[in-house]
Amino acid sequence: xxxxxxxxxxxxxxxxxxxxxxxxxxxxxxxxxxxxxxxxxxxxxxxxxxxxxxxxxxxxxxxxxxxxxxxxxxxxxxxxxxxxxxx
Length: 87
Description:
Number of helices: 1
Structural class: mainly beta
Shape: globular
CATH class: Mainly Beta
Number of domains: 1
Largest sheet: 6 strands, mixed
Strand content: 35-45%
Number of strands: 6
């Protein structure tokens, strides 16, 4: 699918350092979100080194923006967060 920019929200930061974003989708899997170009529609918002906390259709993860040039945004593969609770 594609980014739903209405579900991308700045949570903190953005001054001289990096910003922290939240993004939630029930349509796309973590692997789809980590593909270069997924966040292109937010290229004017995201900066290199920004963090994106993601709630995807198949779980949670964190990605870091590692490229944003000429309208092309690439993020790292999502680092999975969460899992089962053994207690």
